[in-house]
UniProtKB/TrEMBL annotation:
Keywords tagged on the record: ATP-binding, Hydrolase, Iron, Iron-sulfur, Metal-binding, Nucleotide-binding
Role: Binds and transfers iron-sulfur (Fe-S) clusters to target apoproteins. Can hydrolyze ATP.
Listed NCBIfam families: MrpORP (NF041136)
Keyword Protein transport: no
Binding locations of ATP: G44, K45, G46, G47, V48, G49, K50, S51
Similarity section: Belongs to the Mrp/NBP35 ATP-binding proteins family.
Domain Dinitrogenase iron-molybdenum cofactor biosynthesis: start-end pairs: 291-379
Coiled-coil positions: none
The name this protein goes by in its record: Iron-sulfur cluster carrier protein
Oligomeric form and interacting partners: Homodimer.
This protein's record includes keyword ATP-binding: yes
Pfam families associated with the record: Nitro_FeMo-Co, ParA
């Protein structure tokens, strides 16, 4: 190092040893904070329900007995306090700032908890916004927290970059919706995480379907999703497929997000727990409905399921599990309990397709050939579902509305 060094590496051309040493930009949390896991929730664009997913994740893990908190990093568009019905303001002392606890004990910090009025706009430039987010980490007395969820603004700008560089992020969940355009933008978020070496825990697809109140059939207003192809290309998992549900929207408007329930909500929590138990995010189990070694024409009546455990695009091991019997709703739950992430078959009833998707399990129908070859094609991105649905069951009705 030059004796005249002023520590300003940005304007220095010297190739000194100190300059070559990687600089750790991680900030230390407040001395009164003991945070075990930091999970970022991001999206490539706005309007896909990122704050909703953040809130549901915190609620789900809180119900499991974990101490949860939310850092609202969306400074210019904060919505977390509204979803939890928080109207009070955060208080502070010489020691630091105290978060506000929700009705069930979830700790929250948002710019709206500091502004005089919730509707006051935050007209700040990027560096000031990024600095505020950093202060939510360094100056807030979070106490003991098992899971801190960071609700980030959409895109790949200043705030996500600040969070990735300054906070010890253990992984991120990327939220999207079914449209092809959104999937393209989501890939930008995936690539940013790869560049920053932040693990991607998986993808959550919001507004994917709705349940018809008249015929109880599930409909997909934006068409069949292509997110499974994106997930496969990056070795990721589709964690959950969330519905368009007016009751959930009403709960957010009424500040009652903690009263929302649903099986898809529990599956999000299951995935976080499994990731916490050191299950590799790239590993997956692919089940093939088989007759002998060939793909069966109908998964419910197959002889057995060949389950392939894979990682990094390769098959690690294979096992054959006899079909325990076909009855409504049983096989999707059975394979879910086996840890299956993908089910491949020649054909499948619409009810089973819905149950698999509800549990975040990808469904590939229309496959033919030898089971192992089909799995190899899938891992190489050469196999996609053709939507083959069997209509032989009485419950496979159609909606006349």
């Amino acid at each position: 190092m030059n004796e005249a060094c002023d520590q300003s590496c940005g304007s220095c051309n010297e190739a000194c040893d100190e300059r070559k040493t990687p600089y750790d930009m991680k900030e230390q949390p407040h001395a009164g904070s003991q945070i075990q896991k930091v999970i970022g929730v991001v999206s490539g664009k706005g309007g896909v329900g990122k704050s909703l997913v953040t809130s549901l994740l915190a609620v789900s893990m809180n119900r499991r007995g974990y101490r949860t908190a939310i850092l609202d990093a969306d400074v210019t568009g904060p919505s977390i306090p509204k979803a939890f019905g928080i109207t009070g303001k955060a208080m502070g002392s010489e020691t630091g700032i105290f978060p506000i606890a929700s009705e069930t004990g979830i700790k929250l910090m948002s710019i709206n908890l500091l502004l005089p009025n919730d509707t006051d706009p935050v007209v700040w430039r990027g560096p000031l916004i990024a600095g505020t987010v950093k202060q939510f980490w360094t100056d807030v007395i979070w106490g003991e927290v098992d899971y801190l969820f960071v609700d980030m603004p959409p895109g790949t700008g200043d705030v996500p970059l600040t969070v990735f560089q300054s906070l010890p992020v253990d992984g991120i969940v990327i939220v999207t919706s079914p449209q092809e355009l959104v999937s393209m933008i989501v890939e930008k978020a995936v690539r940013m995480a790869e560049m920053m070496q932040i693990p991607v825990l998986g993808l959550v697809e919001n507004m994917a379907w709705f349940q018809c109140p008249s015929c109880d059939t599930r409909h997909y207003p934006f068409g069949e999703s292509h997110l499974d192809m994106l997930a496969r290309r990056h070795g990721l998992k589709l964690l959950a497929s969330l519905p368009i549900d007016p009751a959930v929207a009403a709960a957010c408007d009424q500040g009652a997000i903690e009263k929302v329930s649903g099986e898809w909500l529990e599956e999000l929590g299951n995935h976080l727990e499994r990731a916490d138990q050191n299950e590799g995010v790239n590993g997956m189990k692919i089940a093939v409905a088989s007759d002998g070694t060939q793909v069966s024409g109908h998964f419910g009546h197959c002889e057995a399921f060949h389950i392939f455990e894979t990682d990094a695009g390769k098959v690690l091991r294979e096992e054959r599990v006899a079909n325990p019997g076909h009855r409504p709703g049983f096989l999707p739950q059975f394979l879910h309990e086996q840890g299956v992430n993908v089910i491949v078959s020649g054909g499948m009833g619409g009810g089973a397709v819905d149950l698999f998707r509800e549990n975040g399990i990808e469904v590939v129908t229309g496959a033919v050939g030898e089971a192992r070859e089909v799995v190899s094609m899938y891992l190489q991105g050469q196999l996609s579902s053709n939507g083959s649905v069997c209509h032989e069951h009485a419950h496979e009705g159609t909606c006349g509305h």
